[in-house]
Amino acid sequence: MSPRRRRSGEGGWPWVFVLPTFLGVLVFYLWPLVKTLYDSFTETGPFGGSTWVGAENYSTLVGDGDVYRAILNTVVYTAIVLLGIPLAVLFASLLNRPGLRGAMVYRTLFFLPYVAMPTAISLVWRLIYNKDYGVLNQALGVIGIDGPSWITEPWFALVAVALLGLWMSIGFNMIVLSAGLKGIPGELYEAASLDGAGSVQQFRSITVPLLTPSIFFLSVITTIAGFQLFDQLYALLGPTNPVMPKTQSLVFLFYDAAFVDNERGYGAAIAILILAIVGLLTVVQFRLQRRWVNYD
After folding, report:
1. Burial zone of 186 (CB within 10 Å; 0-12 exposed, 13-18 middle, 19+ buried)
2. Which of 20, 95, 206, 265 has its CA 20 to 30 A from that of 271?
3. How far is 75 from 87, CA to CA, in rounded Å?
4. What is the pTM of this model?
5. Tally of CB atoms within 10 A around 43
6. Half-sphere exposure of 150 toward its Cβ, with a 13 Å CA cutoff?
7. What does the pLDDT read at residue 194?
C-alpha cells in the first residue's frame, strides 16, 4: 500500500477522537448561544410558548434604568476584585523567597477559599458582616469606629460583596503567579544584585515586567468572572434584601427577569448584552496588552 493511500485511510480516525468534544461544544455551548439569541427576539406568553417581537426587548433594554445600574454595579465589583492581582503579585513574591519555611502551607491556606463552595463561604461572611455581633464591626469597635450595616446599605453591600470576591480570588492568582515566578531565571536577580540593585528595585525592574504575561491572563479571566457575579451576591445579600435592587449585578438582573418574572425573552436580551460587554472588554484588553505585556 502506498504512503498516500495509507494516509488517506487513516484520515478519518482523528475526527473520531475529536467528535465527542465537537458534539459537546455544539450541544452545550453553540446551541444555547443560538437559542438565547433567538429567544431575545421573542416574548414569553403567560401559559408558555413565545411570540416573535423583533427588537422590542432590546428597545426596552436601552430605556431600562435598572440595566445601567446593574452595569455600574458589575463594573465596580470587577474593578475591586481586580485589585487582588497586585496584592497576589506581592504575596507570591514574598512566598517565593529562597529559604522561606512553610511556603507550601501558606500557599495552601491562601488557595483554600478558592476551592471552597462560594455559597458556604458567603454564609460565613454574612456572620462576619453582621452589624450587631459580626467580627468585623466588633474589631472596628475596639478602635472606636461604629461599623455600618454592611449588607443592608447599598454602597456598603456592594463593597462587601466585592471584598468577598477579592478575598476568594487571591489564592488562585497566587498559584498562577507563583508558576510565573519559577520561570524567571535566578541569574537575573544575581546580576542585578551585583550591580547594586536592592530588593525593591529588583521587584520593580525584573519581577513585575517578567510577570506581565501572567498578570494579563489573570486580568482577562478576572474580568470575565466579575461579569458573571451571581452566587456570592445571592447568598450574601439574599433575594429579599431591600438593598438588592440597588446592588444587583447583570447576571442577577437576568435571573430575576427570566426565572422570577418569567420574561424569558427580556432575560435572553440581557444575556446577549452580558456576552457583548464581556467580548468587547476582552478585545480591548488584548489590544492594550501590546503596550505593557513583555513576552521577551
Report:
1. exposed
2. 20
3. 19
4. 0.89
5. 17
6. 25
7. 87
